Amino acid sequence: LTPNAVGSGGRSGALSPAPITEDLQKIDVNPPKGTRDFPPEDMRLRNWLFYHFREVSRLFGFEEVDFPVLESEALYIRKAGEEIRDQLYCFEDRGNRRVALRPELTPSLARLVIQKGKSLSLPLKWFAVGQCWRYERMTRGRRREHYQWNMDIIGVPEVTAEAELISSIVTFFKRLGITASDVGFKVSSRKVLQEVLRHYSIPEALFGKVCIIIDKIEKIPVDDIKNELKSAGVSEEAIEQLLQVLSIKSLTKLEEILGDACEAVADLKQLFSLAEKFGYSEWIQFDASIVRGLAYYTGIVFEGFDRGGKLRAICGGGRYDRLLSTFGGDDIPASGFGFGDAVIVELLKEKGLLPELSLQVENIVCALDPGLQGAAATVATILRGKGQSVDLVLENKPLKWVFKRAARINANRLILVGDSEWQRGMVGVKILSSGEQHEIKLDELE
Ligand SMILES: CC(=O)Nc1cnc2ccccc2c1
Fold first, then answer.
1. ipTM for the complex shown
2. Using CA atoms in the order 392, 397, 403, 409, what is the torsion angle rounded to 10 degrees?
């Protein structure tokens, strides 16, 4: 290296080559638009949330699964006009394959179930916590990724599956300190819509599309809903009946209108009686306007909402008995839900339920002079071997600096490796909460 090539140079004065200036352009250190970094503090909150997702899944006997974030685009090509389709984060890869960043987990789960086929003994109770993506054209500043907790029961046609799934979400809320006065579940069944469409002999093929249009009932003017339904091929009379049925707020009323032979009524009545047995009756209410925005739901649908009415849906799910067969699999009944990582955090903030999570290290180990750095490493290794966390001071720092760092990392105790003590096989110990200081033999450290 020629002398003038001396760059910033390391602390030890070693010559590191100067950066080649023409290649240096300031890169944008922010993550891509709509995505998040998870620095330590945010990662602690995320880990805390995911810990509760996983604990509840364990309590319910569910097994964890995962899938690639990247899937064939074909998994999500549904012609029902869903928002998730418009916002698909899809592209052509270098092998000219049409691929997509998954916008949801359920299709991957269905794909894996079919792939595993007969080797699986039903019912399956699978859960996943995975990042999902969307690409919104006009970036309304909305996020393009979020993490979703999914729980799915595959192979159970009865409503007991949905009752179990709602129970798992109630269990999750309770663990976080959220009560039935903070949130609730609106519950309905798409068999209500199915009944009306059948009554007016609207073709089954329109079912998904009609559901997606109706799901927008609170988001766009009712006239637009009517126009969209009309252009989808639904008769005026059927449209009137659909809108009328959606406004029903009581199961008794629904039974009056649809009759007690209607499957939707039977399913919902069973669900509400099971809710009683699970002990979460005060968490759920019938609301015929709940449709959910995914085309593949076929029966019970539900969504978690905040009773303050300020936030978007917290979670949502339902029965999807046809999805596996549309992927070429057997007709296997299924139900599940998705629970995003965004709205729940807003709710916790609002309720003052965010946990105080700080870095916690048991020991900070420091050599009192450079010649003892090796000894300090030995002490750290002994403690770590005993399962104790150790922040080993890696440079020759003044004690003032060490105390400052000890406070920042919430260390319980400071282990000082000094010459005279070390000669006697001892180390200094300072309990940082009390300030109490003593010496201890190395092999008595625990
Ligand atoms: C509130 C929020 O962040 N929602 C959100 C964010 N990212 C997504 C990405 C894919 C699918 C749904 C998504 C939903």
1. 0.93
2. -40
